[in-house]
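**Fold tokens**
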Amino acid sequence: MATALNVHIPEPAAAGAGDFLTTELRTRQQSIAEITEMIHVASLLHDDVLDDAEKRRGINSLNAVMGNKLAVLAGDFLLSQACVALAALKDTEVVSLLATVVENLVMGETMQMNTSSEQRCSMEYYMQKTYYKTASLISNSCEAIALLAGQTIDVAMLAFEYGKNLGLAFQLIDDVLDFTGTSALLRKGSLSEIRQGIVTAPILFSMEEFPQLHAVVYKGFDSPENINIVLEYLGKSHGIQRTRELAMKHANLAAAAIESIPESNDDHVMKSRRALLELTQSVITRNK
């Protein structure tokens, strides 16, 4: 994203100053990438504690190896390091964006843990929670990159829209793979979401076709029998297909955002934009 947006940087008068400014800009943008990754990993460490997860992508989770206390502290340490790095940028707008990400992560997890029966069956509620838990980090990080590059508000919002829709598409495909993938490919247990009582897009779409599923979802998924009933109806419905179609819609919106950025004749810029477009397709065609 940085290379795709680093255009029209003003030429300084002093000889050699241009190279310095370009290097400084890339260093600051790299800091955003590092901050984003620290926030991401911290959220995974905390999620594993909340979910009592024993595995993370086929590897023993930190809480399973070292215990919950150290896992929580490790996540807190990463968040503190992210805050230090963020403060060093001395850009209040960027600080606000990344602080919003942390707020959204907590809000998303709270929405997932405390839902009424009506909320669990709401696609709007599900998509809002998905934005908070997954897409907010990508969208706000992309916008931060644009702001550091001195881009206009319009371009910064296009960067935001790219990250938002890419994140939503990624999570929707993740929800599909929870039902269609295998443990060997995903390196995690299939049906992990439904076993935790989490209602995702494929089930929500199935419920639109088979209203009788509402009664099963209201009861929860503590009983293996209820899980089997949901899976039976899911197999009869277009829930998987409609979720893929929704993911495709968001992937296309992400691509449209990149294509709407003002044109550039710079080969490196255009190569980076093509890579961002290819990523929108990779997200929806992946099998793990």
Residues 121 and 204 are 6 Å apart (CA to CA). The beta strands are 55-56, 59-60. The longest helix spans residues 17-50.
